[in-house]
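Researcher: Before we compare anything, I want clean individual predictions. No alignment, no superposition, just each chain on its own. First chain goes here; please echo the sequence and then give the structure tokens.
Model: Echoing the first chain and its structure:
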Amino acid sequence: MEETLRKLFEDAKNELKSADNMKTLEELRIKYLGKKGELTKILRGMGSLSPEERPIVGKLSNEIRSEIENMLTSRKDDILKKEKEKKIKSEYIDITLPGNRIDIGHKHPMTKVLDEIKEIFLGLGFSIAEGPEVELDYYNFEALNTPPDHPARDLQDTFYITKNILLRTQTSPVQVRTMEKNKPPIKVISPGRVYRSDEIDATHSPVFNQIEGLAVDEGITMGDLKGVLNLFAKRLFGSNTKTKFRPHYFPFTEPSAEMDVSCFVCGGEGCRVCGYSGWIEILGSGMVHPNVLRMSGIDPEKYSGFAFGMGLDRITMLSYGIDDLRLLYENDLRFIKQF
């Protein structure tokens, strides 16, 4: 039995030396030291030994078990070390290689144009005012000289939530709220989202963006309005830009005018962008109607003011030569990445 034990030890030692992975090592542990392993099978025959031989064989078997366990542990450490080295080598990073380019987001074209417009008016001493998109009928219409029976209401297809609450159709209500809360002098612009019940096509959307401006003080005239907007157009479209004003009608301004700029694509010579007229309409404007000043708590006998409004979407389309409004809202990266 002693010879059998020593042979078992030699066999185990040789097999453990050649084991090169954890699965094989575990199989060898079970083979030699498991409940049904080789060592257990041999020890079951100890009953046939004499009382003098049993202690000797028992001691030898314990020594062999201990040696095999030590070899298993040592071999396990070697295998784990080699696996770790192999993993480290396979995951090696050459830090001298150029890195992969990471795409960095950038501003939407409308945001870029809005920032440019804000910068121009902030430089002219205007501040930025904001107001709610869910608005009262009073601020959206009545306080802007458009009572319930006024025909101008038919020009705007409005989203009503209740009889007196609606989604604002313009950012002009911000002007009224500003005049109610502040005493002149007032100089603000109010950019924001507005809503009208429109079909979606290349030039129309039920949701779009406006920027409106307001200046109220003593002695403000139409000349001040033209001077500010002329400077704005030159800053936005180029120093050679020309402007012209055409009479128009808005219920909240009197007199009212629409402003055209010389086509910044063809320089006024005539092209597809300007419809071969040499001019592009960009905004509406006028002197604040006395009724609007009066309803906002400002004395029209002492103060006067001008107001203007433009579509941010239209200005962006003109600035970048975009011919379909839907492109600004669909967030197609193939389009957005061009800017």
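Researcher: Okay. Second chain, same rules.
Model: Second chain and its structure:
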Amino acid sequence: MSEKHLMESLKSLLKEQKLAVLASFHEEEPYTNLVGFVTTDDLKYIFFVTPVATRKYCYLITSQKASMMIDNRSNNESDFNDAMAVNATGKVMEAEKTDELKDLYLEKHPYLHDFLLSPSSALMRMKVKSYIVASKFQNVVEIDMS
């Protein structure tokens, strides 16, 4: 797959998929959650929302290390040849809920309006260090975003 085609496929996957598996860390132990996410057009940042009174928020604020897996599997045998999975790694910090970021998030997730705007929720920003893209089951390519 050419670099241009890989980036187009990555952008398409990240635009189409609504959920990601977020892995945060606490005392070197991973902790996973499903999150609704959105990326910036340049793919350098991923945003998601979490309540502040959760383990997830505490772990992210404490370690700032996180990983997200986004995929398009259908839970069928064909996934071994057709599915694409992406692992994004990076540093997570709380972001200010600016109008621009609220609009970006709500364009993809309008049904999460109240969740995003709740004072008990935080908008989190992952600065992506790299994307590891797996396709055709064993074809793995790393894209450095730093």
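Researcher: What stands out in the second chain?
Model: Residues 3-138 form a domain with the Pnp Oxidase; Chain A fold (CATH 2.30.110.10). Additionally, The mean pLDDT is 94.
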